[in-house]
Amino acid sequence: MLRLLSIALLLAIWWTAALFVDGAKLPSPPVVLHVIIAEAASGALFLHLGATLARVALAFVLAMSLGSAIGYLMGRVKLADRLGDPWLILLLNLPALVVIVLAYIWAGLTEAAAIAAIAINKLPTAVVTLREGTRALDRSLDEMATVFAMPRWRAFRHVVLPQLAPYIAASARSGLSLVWKIVLVAELLGRPNGVGFEIGVAFQLFDTPRLLAYSLTFAAVVLVIETALVQPFEARATRWRPRAA
């Protein structure tokens, strides 16, 4: 309910501001809604949204899979941590724009280059979060699994994974918010479709209604995914933890 009220308040402020600003710079909500409906009717809106969501899904799964495995390894093996830490620091501090541009230069303006660049920008945050989660594992539970001669996979599934679940959820949530931003930059610079591409075209044409139409539709999709998928997953992953009074 509060979310709906905040959105209604934002719309009211936007509509009021549009009355005092040039329509070419800040169109009113009905004007933007008309563009959204027109783009949806032509099918272009769904085409570009689908392309962007596909890139987000592929890059996110790739980064989370590799990042979780590398983070777990670095948290368990000191040698791996020492070898990987300099690279981790480099990737954490390397601007996303540099990674995207280099990926396009080295691999060409291809889909693989775009997805790889997005995944590489997300990768270090997943590694750091899972490494810290692995370091925080309860060693006494590992000893218990050893005493009871639990197979490695069963021990990982029933002893290690539940402890890592909150860290995986946190990494997924923060990483997804990062991927949402980076994918638009990658599309703006080197893809022939997607929300980022359409935003770039609208910018070149100084078409503010179109720019806002694609930006707000993208934001709405992000909000729905966050509410319907990410938050329930995070709540389920942390349900075993005691809640503060």
Automatic annotation (TrEMBL):
<dbReference type="InterPro" id="IPR000515">
    <property type="entry name" value="MetI-like"/>
</dbReference>
<keyword id="KW-0472">Membrane</keyword>
<dbReference type="GO" id="GO:0005886">
    <property type="term" value="C:plasma membrane"/>
</dbReference>
<feature type="transmembrane region" description="Helical">
    <location>
        <begin position="211"/>
        <end position="233"/>
    </location>
</feature>
<keyword id="KW-1003">Cell membrane</keyword>
<keyword id="KW-0813">Transport</keyword>
<comment type="similarity">
    <text>Belongs to the binding-protein-dependent transport system permease family.</text>
</comment>
<feature type="domain" description="ABC transmembrane type-1">
    <location>
        <begin position="49"/>
        <end position="229"/>
    </location>
</feature>
<feature type="transmembrane region" description="Helical">
    <location>
        <begin position="56"/>
        <end position="75"/>
    </location>
</feature>
<protein>
    <submittedName>
        <fullName>ABC transporter permease subunit</fullName>
    </submittedName>
</protein>
<feature type="transmembrane region" description="Helical">
    <location>
        <begin position="87"/>
        <end position="107"/>
    </location>
</feature>
<dbReference type="InterPro" id="IPR035906">
    <property type="entry name" value="MetI-like_sf"/>
</dbReference>
<feature type="transmembrane region" description="Helical">
    <location>
        <begin position="30"/>
        <end position="49"/>
    </location>
</feature>
<keyword id="KW-0812">Transmembrane</keyword>
<dbReference type="GO" id="GO:0055085">
    <property type="term" value="P:transmembrane transport"/>
</dbReference>
<dbReference type="Pfam" id="PF00528">
    <property type="entry name" value="BPD_transp_1"/>
</dbReference>
<keyword id="KW-1133">Transmembrane helix</keyword>
